[in-house]
Amino acid sequence: MRNFTDKEEIRIKENTQHVATVHLPESELSNDFKDIETRAVEARKRQKPSEIGPQPNKKLFIDHPRQLSAESSGKRRIKSVHETYLRAQKYEDDVDFVSAPPREWENWYITDWEGQVAFKAIHLPKRYVRASPEGNVDLVFTHPQAWELWSPFKNDNGTWSFQSHHGQWLSADADGRACIVEKKQDQEQFLLENWD
Questions:
Q1: How far is 162 from 184, CA to CA, in rounded Å?
Q2: Phi-psi label, residue 154: left if phi above 0, alpha if psi -120 to 50, beta otherwise
Q3: Could you tell me the pTM of the whole model?
Q4: Residue from 172, 169, 166 nearest 147 by CA
Q5: Comparing 156 with 26, which gets the higher pLDDT?
Q6: Does 130 have pLDDT greater than 80?
Q7: DSSP for 38-93, written as a single string
Q8: CA torsion, points 42, 46, 50, 55, in degrees to nearest 10?
Q9: Backbone Cα Rg of the chain
Q10: Taking 60 as the threshold, does the pLDDT of residue 8 lie above it?
Q11: Whole-angstrom distance between the N-terminal and C-terminal Cα of the chain?
């Protein structure tokens, strides 16, 4: 192997992104590649933060799903682009969208579930909204499993979209039908209103 000089640069990489370039004096270099990398890391530790440059905030990426699920959870009404509200039908296992004003059956508890959410009806016994891979949405009497969990996404316009376990989006048809669809468009964006 060849010797390096103090003019040559050693690039340190984390997660395939360039983080810093470290200039090592010739006295800290050797012919062994592992030794070079180790010494470069040690030299980086001695650098001031301003010399290293901006680094991505890893905590932001790790906590993002949990932050969204916490932000969307609570006592909520789910309002569609059609000015209709998601309703749990009182004596049936169906959900649909009904026109305003919202009534008791349009109230939901959106519960934070480790980065996802579950839509819990206010009825006793507790029922949850479930998405089936065929595109149906209904209520089930169960502790939330994969099919009852939704990934929340906050849209640029302040609305929310919810993706099912199957990768499909909660949708409100103009005729009041609740379903899941492949593509996210206007009908898959919802306002979350508080209720008490």
A1: 9
A2: beta
A3: 0.67
A4: 166
A5: 156
A6: yes
A7: HHHHHHHHHS-HHHH-----HHHHHHHHHHHHHHH-EEEEEE-TTSEEEEE-TTSS
A8: 30
A9: 26
A10: no
A11: 72
How does strand 150-154 pair with strand 160-164?
Answer: antiparallel
The pLDDT assigned to 67 comes to 82
In terms of phi and psi (left: phi > 0; alpha: psi -120 to 50; beta: otherwise), the region of 176 is left
Structure-block tokens of residue 31? 């012919």
* DSSP conformation class of 145: -
State how far the Cα of 129 lies from the Cα of 131, in Å rounded to an integer.
7
Half-sphere exposure of 116 (CA within 13 A, CB side): 15
- pLDDT of residue 6 exceeding 80: no
Sequence spans of domains, the chain = 9-52, 61-194
- d(Cα 5, Cα 35) in Å, to the nearest integer? 15
| Residue 36 tokens, joined | 């070079």
Cα–Cα distance, 70 to 116 (Å, whole number) = 9
Whether the per-residue pLDDT at 49 is higher than 60: the answer is no
CATH 1.20.1070.10 fits 61-194, yes or no: no
Residue 113's contacts (CB-CB under 8 Å, 6 or more residues apart) are 69, 144, 149
